[in-house]
Design brief:
α4 (117-134) packs across α5 and α11 runs parallel beside α12. The longest helix has 21 residues, at 474-494. The chain is globular and about 65 Å long. The chain has helices at 30-44, 57-62, 96-99, 117-134, 153-161, 184-189, 210-217, 226-231, 242-247, 282-295, 318-330, 343-353, 368-377, 392-399, 410-415, 439-453, 456-468, 474-494, 497-502; strands at residues 14-18, 48-54, 64-71, 77-82, 89-94, 144-148, 169-173, 181-183, 203-204, 207-209, 220-223, 252-254, 305-309, 334-339, 360-364, 380-382, 403-406, 432-433. It has two domains: 14-139 and 151-258 and 474-512, Rossmann fold (3-Layer(aba) Sandwich), CATH 3.40.50; 266-467, 3-Layer(aba) Sandwich (Rossmann fold). A nine-stranded mixed β-sheet has the order 3-4-5-2-1-6-7-11-12, sandwiched between helices. The chain has a six-stranded parallel β-sheet with strand order 15-14-13-16-17-18, sandwiched between helices. The chain is 37% helix and 16% strand. The chain contains 19 helices and 18 strands. By secondary structure, the protein is of the alpha/beta class. Bound molecules: adenosine-5'-diphosphate and alpha-D-glucopyranose. Adenosine-5'-diphosphate (ADP) binds next to α1, β14, α13 and α14.
Protein backbone atom coordinates (compact mmCIF):
# COMPACT_ATOMS: atom_id res chain seq x y z
CA UNK A 1 0.00 0.00 0.00
CA UNK A 2 1.51 3.29 -1.01
CA UNK A 3 -0.81 5.89 0.35
CA UNK A 4 1.49 8.81 -0.32
CA UNK A 5 0.98 8.55 -4.08
CA UNK A 6 -2.73 9.18 -3.76
CA UNK A 7 -2.36 12.27 -1.65
CA UNK A 8 -2.85 15.75 -2.98
CA UNK A 9 0.42 17.61 -2.68
CA UNK A 10 0.62 20.18 0.09
CA UNK A 11 -1.67 18.41 2.55
CA UNK A 12 -2.15 20.32 5.78
CA UNK A 13 0.45 19.70 8.45
CA UNK A 14 -0.15 16.40 10.24
CA UNK A 15 0.64 16.30 13.92
CA UNK A 16 0.44 13.31 16.24
CA UNK A 17 -0.26 14.65 19.72
CA UNK A 18 0.78 12.01 22.25
CA UNK A 19 -0.60 12.42 25.74
CA UNK A 20 -1.61 10.31 28.67
CA UNK A 21 -4.57 12.56 29.53
CA UNK A 22 -7.15 14.37 27.43
CA UNK A 23 -10.37 15.72 28.87
CA UNK A 24 -13.05 14.27 28.90
CA UNK A 25 -11.42 10.92 28.10
CA UNK A 26 -8.96 11.03 30.98
CA UNK A 27 -7.87 13.79 33.35
CA UNK A 28 -6.08 14.05 36.67
CA UNK A 29 -5.08 17.70 36.35
CA UNK A 30 -4.23 20.48 33.95
CA UNK A 31 -2.48 18.20 31.46
CA UNK A 32 -5.87 16.75 30.54
CA UNK A 33 -7.27 20.22 29.91
CA UNK A 34 -4.30 21.49 27.92
CA UNK A 35 -4.15 18.29 25.84
CA UNK A 36 -7.80 18.75 24.87
CA UNK A 37 -7.74 22.46 24.17
CA UNK A 38 -4.45 22.90 22.30
CA UNK A 39 -5.21 20.32 19.59
CA UNK A 40 -8.68 21.84 19.17
CA UNK A 41 -7.13 25.29 18.74
CA UNK A 42 -4.59 23.89 16.27
CA UNK A 43 -7.37 22.22 14.28
CA UNK A 44 -9.08 25.59 14.05
CA UNK A 45 -5.85 26.91 12.51
CA UNK A 46 -5.95 24.21 9.86
CA UNK A 47 -3.56 21.67 11.38
CA UNK A 48 -4.49 18.02 10.84
CA UNK A 49 -3.89 16.99 14.44
CA UNK A 50 -4.70 13.62 15.95
CA UNK A 51 -4.12 12.58 19.53
CA UNK A 52 -2.97 9.22 20.82
CA UNK A 53 -3.89 8.10 24.32
CA UNK A 54 -3.69 4.89 26.34
CA UNK A 55 -6.96 2.94 26.19
CA UNK A 56 -8.07 3.53 29.77
CA UNK A 57 -11.59 2.38 30.60
CA UNK A 58 -12.75 6.01 30.83
CA UNK A 59 -11.26 6.78 27.42
CA UNK A 60 -12.80 3.70 25.78
CA UNK A 61 -16.16 4.60 27.30
CA UNK A 62 -16.07 8.28 26.37
CA UNK A 63 -14.63 8.30 22.86
CA UNK A 64 -17.17 8.40 20.03
CA UNK A 65 -17.45 6.20 16.96
CA UNK A 66 -14.43 4.08 17.75
CA UNK A 67 -13.28 1.44 15.34
CA UNK A 68 -10.37 -0.96 15.18
CA UNK A 69 -7.45 -0.08 12.94
CA UNK A 70 -4.77 -2.64 13.70
CA UNK A 71 -4.13 -5.51 16.09
CA UNK A 72 -0.72 -5.36 17.68
CA UNK A 73 1.00 -8.70 18.11
CA UNK A 74 1.50 -8.31 21.87
CA UNK A 75 -2.20 -8.04 22.57
CA UNK A 76 -2.77 -4.36 22.11
CA UNK A 77 -5.08 -2.93 19.50
CA UNK A 78 -5.00 0.46 17.84
CA UNK A 79 -8.43 2.09 17.77
CA UNK A 80 -9.53 5.37 16.23
CA UNK A 81 -12.40 7.49 17.46
CA UNK A 82 -13.24 11.11 18.19
CA UNK A 83 -13.67 13.24 21.29
CA UNK A 84 -17.35 13.85 22.06
CA UNK A 85 -17.31 17.65 21.91
CA UNK A 86 -14.50 18.83 19.67
CA UNK A 87 -14.53 15.75 17.40
CA UNK A 88 -10.76 15.57 17.58
CA UNK A 89 -9.55 12.27 16.10
CA UNK A 90 -8.02 10.16 18.87
CA UNK A 91 -6.10 6.92 18.59
CA UNK A 92 -6.41 4.70 21.63
CA UNK A 93 -3.96 1.94 22.46
CA UNK A 94 -6.38 -0.68 23.73
CA UNK A 95 -4.26 -3.10 25.69
CA UNK A 96 -6.50 -4.58 28.38
CA UNK A 97 -3.71 -6.05 30.48
CA UNK A 98 -1.98 -2.68 30.76
CA UNK A 99 -4.72 -0.06 30.67
CA UNK A 100 -8.15 -1.50 31.40
CA UNK A 101 -8.02 -1.32 35.16
CA UNK A 102 -10.16 0.18 37.88
CA UNK A 103 -8.47 3.26 39.34
CA UNK A 104 -6.66 6.17 37.77
CA UNK A 105 -4.23 6.49 34.89
CA UNK A 106 -1.20 6.13 37.15
CA UNK A 107 -2.49 4.75 40.42
CA UNK A 108 -4.90 2.21 41.83
CA UNK A 109 -7.92 3.19 43.89
CA UNK A 110 -5.71 3.27 47.01
CA UNK A 111 -3.43 5.84 45.35
CA UNK A 112 -0.53 3.43 44.95
CA UNK A 113 1.37 3.80 41.71
CA UNK A 114 0.71 0.92 39.36
CA UNK A 115 3.80 -1.27 39.76
CA UNK A 116 4.24 -1.67 36.01
CA UNK A 117 4.05 2.01 35.03
CA UNK A 118 7.34 1.90 33.15
CA UNK A 119 6.12 -1.00 31.05
CA UNK A 120 2.76 0.69 30.49
CA UNK A 121 4.16 3.96 29.24
CA UNK A 122 7.07 2.40 27.38
CA UNK A 123 4.50 0.30 25.54
CA UNK A 124 2.38 3.37 24.89
CA UNK A 125 5.41 5.29 23.63
CA UNK A 126 6.46 2.38 21.41
CA UNK A 127 2.98 2.18 19.88
CA UNK A 128 2.97 5.92 19.20
CA UNK A 129 6.45 5.66 17.67
CA UNK A 130 5.28 2.89 15.34
CA UNK A 131 2.33 4.97 14.25
CA UNK A 132 4.66 7.93 13.67
CA UNK A 133 7.15 5.89 11.67
CA UNK A 134 4.83 3.65 9.70
CA UNK A 135 1.45 5.32 9.61
CA UNK A 136 -1.86 4.00 10.88
CA UNK A 137 -2.41 1.64 7.95
CA UNK A 138 -5.15 3.93 6.68
CA UNK A 139 -3.33 6.72 4.89
CA UNK A 140 -2.53 8.85 7.91
CA UNK A 141 1.01 9.44 9.08
CA UNK A 142 2.25 12.48 11.01
CA UNK A 143 4.74 15.03 9.74
CA UNK A 144 5.59 15.82 13.34
CA UNK A 145 5.16 14.27 16.77
CA UNK A 146 4.22 16.40 19.77
CA UNK A 147 4.82 14.48 22.99
CA UNK A 148 3.80 15.58 26.48
CA UNK A 149 5.26 14.92 29.92
CA UNK A 150 7.16 11.89 31.17
CA UNK A 151 4.59 9.38 29.93
CA UNK A 152 5.74 10.08 26.38
CA UNK A 153 9.41 10.83 27.02
CA UNK A 154 10.36 7.47 25.56
CA UNK A 155 8.46 8.30 22.40
CA UNK A 156 10.96 11.08 21.66
CA UNK A 157 13.81 8.67 22.43
CA UNK A 158 12.46 5.89 20.21
CA UNK A 159 12.16 8.33 17.33
CA UNK A 160 15.63 9.78 17.86
CA UNK A 161 17.19 6.31 18.02
CA UNK A 162 15.40 5.14 14.90
CA UNK A 163 17.94 4.51 12.18
CA UNK A 164 15.88 5.64 9.19
CA UNK A 165 13.97 8.77 8.30
CA UNK A 166 11.55 9.90 10.94
CA UNK A 167 9.29 12.80 11.78
CA UNK A 168 10.72 15.49 14.08
CA UNK A 169 9.60 15.62 17.69
CA UNK A 170 8.56 18.32 20.11
CA UNK A 171 8.36 17.55 23.82
CA UNK A 172 6.30 19.72 26.17
CA UNK A 173 7.09 19.73 29.87
CA UNK A 174 3.90 20.31 31.83
CA UNK A 175 5.48 19.58 35.17
CA UNK A 176 9.12 18.83 35.90
CA UNK A 177 8.23 17.37 39.28
CA UNK A 178 6.69 14.27 37.74
CA UNK A 179 9.63 12.48 36.19
CA UNK A 180 8.68 8.86 35.67
CA UNK A 181 11.81 7.54 37.38
CA UNK A 182 12.20 3.77 37.71
CA UNK A 183 14.92 1.31 38.73
CA UNK A 184 17.47 0.90 35.95
CA UNK A 185 17.27 -2.92 36.05
CA UNK A 186 13.57 -2.65 35.28
CA UNK A 187 14.37 -0.63 32.15
CA UNK A 188 17.00 -3.18 31.16
CA UNK A 189 14.62 -6.08 31.74
CA UNK A 190 12.08 -4.44 29.44
CA UNK A 191 14.70 -4.45 26.73
CA UNK A 192 15.03 -0.71 26.41
CA UNK A 193 18.06 0.15 24.25
CA UNK A 194 21.42 0.21 26.03
CA UNK A 195 22.00 3.73 24.70
CA UNK A 196 19.22 4.90 27.02
CA UNK A 197 20.62 3.30 30.15
CA UNK A 198 23.69 5.51 30.52
CA UNK A 199 24.12 9.09 31.80
CA UNK A 200 24.23 10.44 28.26
CA UNK A 201 20.90 8.68 27.70
CA UNK A 202 18.07 8.58 30.23
CA UNK A 203 19.95 7.43 33.31
CA UNK A 204 19.21 9.89 36.10
CA UNK A 205 21.01 9.66 39.44
CA UNK A 206 21.09 5.88 39.31
CA UNK A 207 17.57 5.53 37.98
CA UNK A 208 15.94 5.42 34.61
CA UNK A 209 14.00 8.62 33.89
CA UNK A 210 11.32 8.85 31.24
CA UNK A 211 11.22 12.63 31.62
CA UNK A 212 14.94 12.84 31.02
CA UNK A 213 14.48 10.75 27.88
CA UNK A 214 12.04 13.33 26.56
CA UNK A 215 14.28 16.28 27.41
CA UNK A 216 17.40 14.58 26.09
CA UNK A 217 16.04 13.23 22.79
CA UNK A 218 13.26 15.49 21.54
CA UNK A 219 14.25 17.81 18.71
CA UNK A 220 12.70 20.79 20.46
CA UNK A 221 11.34 21.48 23.93
CA UNK A 222 8.60 23.68 25.26
CA UNK A 223 7.14 24.27 28.64
CA UNK A 224 3.86 25.87 29.57
CA UNK A 225 4.80 29.42 30.55
CA UNK A 226 7.65 31.82 29.81
CA UNK A 227 8.51 32.29 33.48
CA UNK A 228 8.67 28.56 34.18
CA UNK A 229 10.90 28.17 31.12
CA UNK A 230 13.42 30.50 32.79
CA UNK A 231 12.95 29.10 36.29
CA UNK A 232 13.67 25.50 35.36
CA UNK A 233 17.17 26.43 34.24
CA UNK A 234 17.99 27.05 37.92
CA UNK A 235 18.71 24.47 40.63
CA UNK A 236 15.82 25.85 42.72
CA UNK A 237 13.17 24.92 40.16
CA UNK A 238 15.06 22.46 37.95
CA UNK A 239 14.18 19.31 39.93
CA UNK A 240 17.62 17.89 39.13
CA UNK A 241 17.13 18.39 35.38
CA UNK A 242 18.41 21.98 35.29
CA UNK A 243 21.88 21.01 34.03
CA UNK A 244 20.46 19.11 31.10
CA UNK A 245 17.93 21.86 30.50
CA UNK A 246 20.67 24.48 30.45
CA UNK A 247 22.51 22.38 27.90
CA UNK A 248 19.36 22.43 25.78
CA UNK A 249 18.32 26.00 26.58
CA UNK A 250 18.61 27.06 22.94
CA UNK A 251 15.94 24.50 22.03
CA UNK A 252 13.58 25.37 24.90
CA UNK A 253 10.81 27.93 24.78
CA UNK A 254 7.98 28.78 27.18
CA UNK A 255 4.53 29.09 25.61
CA UNK A 256 1.73 30.03 27.97
CA UNK A 257 -1.20 27.64 28.03
CA UNK A 258 -4.59 29.02 27.21
CA UNK A 259 -7.93 27.78 28.50
CA UNK A 260 -10.92 26.43 26.65
CA UNK A 261 -13.05 29.57 26.80
CA UNK A 262 -16.14 27.70 25.58
CA UNK A 263 -15.95 24.99 28.24
CA UNK A 264 -15.06 27.49 30.96
CA UNK A 265 -17.54 30.24 30.19
CA UNK A 266 -19.76 31.52 33.01
CA UNK A 267 -22.15 32.93 30.39
CA UNK A 268 -22.81 29.44 29.00
CA UNK A 269 -22.01 26.93 31.70
CA UNK A 270 -24.61 24.19 32.24
CA UNK A 271 -23.18 23.51 35.70
CA UNK A 272 -24.27 26.93 37.01
CA UNK A 273 -27.69 27.98 38.32
CA UNK A 274 -27.64 31.15 36.18
CA UNK A 275 -25.33 32.64 33.58
CA UNK A 276 -23.19 35.71 34.25
CA UNK A 277 -20.37 37.70 32.73
CA UNK A 278 -18.24 40.75 33.49
CA UNK A 279 -21.10 43.17 32.82
CA UNK A 280 -23.95 41.07 34.22
CA UNK A 281 -22.76 39.76 37.58
CA UNK A 282 -26.15 38.90 39.12
CA UNK A 283 -25.74 35.22 38.25
CA UNK A 284 -22.58 35.10 40.32
CA UNK A 285 -24.52 36.09 43.42
CA UNK A 286 -27.01 33.32 42.68
CA UNK A 287 -24.16 30.83 42.28
CA UNK A 288 -22.85 31.84 45.70
CA UNK A 289 -26.25 31.48 47.36
CA UNK A 290 -26.84 28.10 45.75
CA UNK A 291 -23.43 26.80 46.71
CA UNK A 292 -23.74 27.91 50.33
CA UNK A 293 -27.04 26.11 50.47
CA UNK A 294 -25.60 22.99 48.81
CA UNK A 295 -22.66 22.82 51.20
CA UNK A 296 -24.49 23.89 54.37
CA UNK A 297 -22.55 27.14 54.79
CA UNK A 298 -24.06 30.08 56.69
CA UNK A 299 -26.13 31.94 54.08
CA UNK A 300 -25.82 35.27 55.94
CA UNK A 301 -22.03 35.45 56.43
CA UNK A 302 -20.65 38.72 55.11
CA UNK A 303 -16.97 37.86 54.65
CA UNK A 304 -15.54 36.64 51.36
CA UNK A 305 -16.19 33.10 50.16
CA UNK A 306 -12.73 31.61 49.68
CA UNK A 307 -12.47 28.49 47.58
CA UNK A 308 -9.59 26.11 46.89
CA UNK A 309 -9.97 23.61 44.04
CA UNK A 310 -6.63 21.94 43.70
CA UNK A 311 -4.69 18.76 44.09
CA UNK A 312 -3.85 18.42 47.78
CA UNK A 313 -0.11 18.31 47.30
CA UNK A 314 2.99 20.11 48.41
CA UNK A 315 3.21 21.82 45.01
CA UNK A 316 -0.14 23.49 45.70
CA UNK A 317 0.92 24.39 49.25
CA UNK A 318 -1.97 22.36 50.65
CA UNK A 319 -0.01 21.91 53.90
CA UNK A 320 0.30 25.70 54.23
CA UNK A 321 -3.39 26.25 53.44
CA UNK A 322 -4.24 23.76 56.19
CA UNK A 323 -2.11 25.67 58.70
CA UNK A 324 -3.61 28.99 57.63
CA UNK A 325 -7.24 27.82 57.92
CA UNK A 326 -7.88 29.08 61.50
CA UNK A 327 -6.53 32.52 60.61
CA UNK A 328 -8.72 32.71 57.49
CA UNK A 329 -11.81 31.74 59.46
CA UNK A 330 -10.93 34.26 62.20
CA UNK A 331 -10.87 36.94 59.52
CA UNK A 332 -14.52 36.12 58.81
CA UNK A 333 -13.92 34.22 55.58
CA UNK A 334 -15.96 31.20 54.58
CA UNK A 335 -13.73 28.52 53.14
CA UNK A 336 -14.36 25.60 50.79
CA UNK A 337 -11.66 23.08 49.97
CA UNK A 338 -12.28 20.62 47.16
CA UNK A 339 -9.50 18.33 46.10
CA UNK A 340 -7.72 15.07 46.46
CA UNK A 341 -4.14 14.03 46.80
CA UNK A 342 -1.91 13.29 49.75
CA UNK A 343 -3.95 10.95 52.01
CA UNK A 344 -2.56 12.57 55.18
CA UNK A 345 -3.64 16.00 53.99
CA UNK A 346 -7.04 14.71 52.93
CA UNK A 347 -7.62 13.38 56.45
CA UNK A 348 -6.34 16.57 58.08
CA UNK A 349 -8.64 18.77 56.00
CA UNK A 350 -11.61 16.55 56.83
CA UNK A 351 -10.76 16.78 60.52
CA UNK A 352 -10.38 20.56 60.33
CA UNK A 353 -13.97 20.93 59.17
CA UNK A 354 -15.48 19.05 62.11
CA UNK A 355 -17.46 21.45 64.30
CA UNK A 356 -17.03 24.35 61.84
CA UNK A 357 -19.41 23.14 59.15
CA UNK A 358 -21.13 26.47 58.61
CA UNK A 359 -17.83 28.20 57.91
CA UNK A 360 -15.62 25.51 56.42
CA UNK A 361 -16.68 22.90 53.86
CA UNK A 362 -14.23 20.20 52.85
CA UNK A 363 -15.13 17.96 49.94
CA UNK A 364 -12.45 15.40 49.24
CA UNK A 365 -12.68 14.02 45.74
CA UNK A 366 -12.64 15.10 42.14
CA UNK A 367 -15.80 16.45 40.56
CA UNK A 368 -15.55 18.48 37.42
CA UNK A 369 -18.96 20.16 37.76
CA UNK A 370 -18.36 21.08 41.37
CA UNK A 371 -15.11 22.76 40.29
CA UNK A 372 -17.13 24.94 37.89
CA UNK A 373 -19.73 25.80 40.54
CA UNK A 374 -17.05 26.63 43.09
CA UNK A 375 -15.28 29.05 40.77
CA UNK A 376 -18.62 30.68 39.97
CA UNK A 377 -19.55 31.08 43.63
CA UNK A 378 -16.17 32.19 44.96
CA UNK A 379 -15.02 35.68 45.79
CA UNK A 380 -11.45 34.50 46.24
CA UNK A 381 -9.70 31.45 44.82
CA UNK A 382 -6.86 29.98 46.84
CA UNK A 383 -4.34 28.87 44.24
CA UNK A 384 -0.98 29.21 45.99
CA UNK A 385 1.93 27.13 44.78
CA UNK A 386 5.54 26.48 45.64
CA UNK A 387 6.09 26.19 41.91
CA UNK A 388 3.60 26.25 39.05
CA UNK A 389 4.43 25.46 35.43
CA UNK A 390 1.29 27.23 34.23
CA UNK A 391 -1.71 27.00 36.57
CA UNK A 392 -4.97 26.65 34.69
CA UNK A 393 -7.09 26.72 37.85
CA UNK A 394 -6.03 30.30 38.42
CA UNK A 395 -7.14 31.31 34.93
CA UNK A 396 -10.48 29.54 35.35
CA UNK A 397 -10.98 31.37 38.64
CA UNK A 398 -10.31 34.79 37.08
CA UNK A 399 -12.66 34.07 34.20
CA UNK A 400 -15.38 33.25 36.74
CA UNK A 401 -14.74 36.43 38.74
CA UNK A 402 -12.99 34.70 41.64
CA UNK A 403 -9.87 36.73 42.39
CA UNK A 404 -6.86 34.49 42.99
CA UNK A 405 -4.72 34.53 46.12
CA UNK A 406 -1.45 33.10 44.93
CA UNK A 407 2.33 33.39 44.55
CA UNK A 408 3.94 34.87 41.44
CA UNK A 409 5.84 31.73 40.43
CA UNK A 410 5.87 30.16 36.98
CA UNK A 411 2.76 30.71 34.93
CA UNK A 412 1.08 32.46 37.86
CA UNK A 413 3.59 35.27 37.44
CA UNK A 414 2.59 35.47 33.78
CA UNK A 415 -1.17 35.51 34.37
CA UNK A 416 -1.92 37.27 37.67
CA UNK A 417 -1.29 40.97 38.19
CA UNK A 418 -1.24 41.94 41.85
CA UNK A 419 -3.90 44.44 42.84
CA UNK A 420 -2.38 47.52 44.40
CA UNK A 421 -4.76 47.59 47.36
CA UNK A 422 -3.32 50.91 48.53
CA UNK A 423 -4.31 52.45 45.21
CA UNK A 424 -7.20 50.35 43.92
CA UNK A 425 -8.65 53.03 41.68
CA UNK A 426 -5.52 53.22 39.58
CA UNK A 427 -4.77 49.56 39.64
CA UNK A 428 -5.34 47.15 36.80
CA UNK A 429 -4.75 44.14 38.98
CA UNK A 430 -6.54 40.80 38.74
CA UNK A 431 -5.57 39.06 41.96
CA UNK A 432 -3.50 39.08 45.13
CA UNK A 433 0.01 37.74 45.35
CA UNK A 434 2.35 37.07 48.26
CA UNK A 435 6.00 36.11 48.33
CA UNK A 436 6.86 33.81 51.23
CA UNK A 437 5.40 30.31 50.99
CA UNK A 438 4.20 30.52 54.62
CA UNK A 439 0.84 30.37 56.38
CA UNK A 440 1.40 33.85 57.81
CA UNK A 441 2.01 35.35 54.37
CA UNK A 442 -0.99 33.52 52.92
CA UNK A 443 -3.25 34.72 55.73
CA UNK A 444 -1.87 38.25 55.38
CA UNK A 445 -2.71 38.19 51.69
CA UNK A 446 -6.29 37.03 52.37
CA UNK A 447 -6.58 39.81 54.96
CA UNK A 448 -5.46 42.36 52.36
CA UNK A 449 -7.98 40.93 49.89
CA UNK A 450 -10.65 41.09 52.59
CA UNK A 451 -10.13 44.84 52.91
CA UNK A 452 -10.75 45.34 49.22
CA UNK A 453 -13.78 43.05 49.44
CA UNK A 454 -15.38 45.56 51.79
CA UNK A 455 -15.07 48.24 49.10
CA UNK A 456 -17.70 47.07 46.58
CA UNK A 457 -16.77 49.58 43.88
CA UNK A 458 -13.09 48.69 43.91
CA UNK A 459 -13.96 44.99 44.14
CA UNK A 460 -16.19 45.10 41.09
CA UNK A 461 -13.50 46.91 39.15
CA UNK A 462 -10.94 44.24 39.94
CA UNK A 463 -13.42 41.47 39.24
CA UNK A 464 -14.25 42.95 35.88
CA UNK A 465 -10.57 43.29 34.99
CA UNK A 466 -9.98 39.62 35.89
CA UNK A 467 -13.00 38.41 33.92
CA UNK A 468 -12.00 40.40 30.87
CA UNK A 469 -8.47 39.06 30.63
CA UNK A 470 -8.06 37.09 27.42
CA UNK A 471 -6.88 33.59 28.30
CA UNK A 472 -7.89 31.98 25.01
CA UNK A 473 -5.59 29.60 23.17
CA UNK A 474 -5.32 31.38 19.88
CA UNK A 475 -2.12 33.35 20.41
CA UNK A 476 -0.32 30.38 21.93
CA UNK A 477 -1.61 27.92 19.35
CA UNK A 478 -0.05 30.17 16.69
CA UNK A 479 3.25 30.00 18.54
CA UNK A 480 3.11 26.21 18.47
CA UNK A 481 2.25 26.33 14.82
CA UNK A 482 5.30 28.51 14.10
CA UNK A 483 7.45 26.05 16.03
CA UNK A 484 6.01 23.11 14.11
CA UNK A 485 6.84 24.97 10.90
CA UNK A 486 10.47 25.43 11.99
CA UNK A 487 10.77 21.76 12.79
CA UNK A 488 9.09 20.30 9.76
CA UNK A 489 10.72 22.39 7.08
CA UNK A 490 14.21 20.83 7.37
CA UNK A 491 12.80 17.40 8.14
CA UNK A 492 10.78 17.32 4.97
CA UNK A 493 13.96 17.72 2.96
CA UNK A 494 15.79 14.95 4.74
CA UNK A 495 12.92 12.55 5.31
CA UNK A 496 10.68 12.30 2.28
CA UNK A 497 7.36 10.69 3.09
CA UNK A 498 7.80 7.94 0.55
CA UNK A 499 10.93 6.68 2.22
CA UNK A 500 9.25 6.68 5.59
CA UNK A 501 6.42 4.64 4.19
CA UNK A 502 8.73 2.26 2.38
CA UNK A 503 10.23 1.33 5.73
CA UNK A 504 6.82 0.36 7.06
CA UNK A 505 7.29 -3.35 6.64
CA UNK A 506 10.15 -3.78 9.03
CA UNK A 507 9.61 -3.26 12.76
CA UNK A 508 12.19 -0.71 13.72
CA UNK A 509 11.19 0.70 17.07
CA UNK A 510 14.12 -0.34 19.23
CA UNK A 511 12.35 -2.49 21.76
CA UNK A 512 12.69 -5.93 23.26
CA UNK A 513 10.02 -8.64 23.11
CA UNK A 514 7.60 -7.33 25.74
CA UNK A 515 7.30 -4.08 23.81
CA UNK A 516 7.60 -5.20 20.23
CA UNK A 517 4.58 -4.02 18.34
CA UNK A 518 3.70 -5.38 14.95
CA UNK A 519 1.09 -3.58 12.95
CA UNK A 520 -1.52 -6.06 11.82
CA UNK A 521 -1.48 -7.02 8.18
P1 LIG B 1 -2.27 20.90 37.89
O1 LIG B 1 -2.30 20.43 36.50
O2 LIG B 1 -0.90 21.08 38.44
O3 LIG B 1 -3.14 20.10 38.81
P2 LIG B 1 -3.77 23.22 36.91
O4 LIG B 1 -4.28 24.35 37.71
O5 LIG B 1 -3.07 23.56 35.68
O6 LIG B 1 -2.87 22.39 37.91
O7 LIG B 1 -4.96 22.28 36.49
C1 LIG B 1 -5.75 21.62 37.45
C2 LIG B 1 -7.01 21.13 36.80
O8 LIG B 1 -7.57 20.12 37.62
C3 LIG B 1 -8.08 22.18 36.66
O9 LIG B 1 -8.88 21.86 35.54
C4 LIG B 1 -8.87 22.03 37.95
O10 LIG B 1 -10.18 22.51 37.84
C5 LIG B 1 -8.85 20.55 38.08
N1 LIG B 1 -9.05 20.07 39.43
C6 LIG B 1 -8.15 20.02 40.44
N2 LIG B 1 -8.69 19.46 41.53
C7 LIG B 1 -9.96 19.15 41.20
C8 LIG B 1 -11.06 18.54 41.89
N3 LIG B 1 -10.93 18.13 43.15
N4 LIG B 1 -12.22 18.36 41.23
C9 LIG B 1 -12.35 18.77 39.96
N5 LIG B 1 -11.37 19.34 39.25
C10 LIG B 1 -10.20 19.53 39.87
C1 LIG C 1 0.78 20.62 34.98
C2 LIG C 1 1.16 21.82 35.82
C3 LIG C 1 0.22 22.98 35.66
C4 LIG C 1 -0.16 23.20 34.21
C5 LIG C 1 -0.68 21.91 33.61
C6 LIG C 1 -1.06 22.04 32.14
O1 LIG C 1 -0.06 19.74 35.62
O2 LIG C 1 1.30 21.49 37.19
O3 LIG C 1 0.81 24.15 36.18
O4 LIG C 1 -1.13 24.20 34.11
O5 LIG C 1 0.29 20.92 33.69
O6 LIG C 1 0.05 22.40 31.35
Amino acid sequence: MDIARHEPPGHSLRVLFATSELFPLAKTGGLGDAAAALPAALSALGVDVRAILPGYVSALDTVRGKRTLARLSTGGTLLLGRTPDSFLPVYLLDWPELFRRPGGPYQDAEKRDWPDNLRRFAAFSAAAARLALHGDGEAWQPDLVHANDWHTGLLAAFLALHAGPRPPSLFTIHNLAYQGNFPLPEARALGLPEALLVPDGAEFYGQFSCLKAGIRYADRLTTVSPTYAREILTPEFGAGMDGLLRARAADLVGILNGIDTALWDPAHDPALPAPFDADHPAGKRLAKEALRHELGLDPAADGPLVVGVNRLTEQKMADVVLTALPALLDEGAQVVVHGEGDPGLEAAFRAAAVGRETRLAVRIGYREELAHRLNAAADLALTPARFEPCGLTTMYAMRYGALPVTRPVGGLGDTVTDIDTANPTRAEGTGFTFAEPSAAALAGCVRRAGRLFRDPVAWRRAQRAAMRRDFGWEVSARRYLALYGDLVAPAVQTAPRLRVLAAAAEPSVPTAPPLRLEAAA
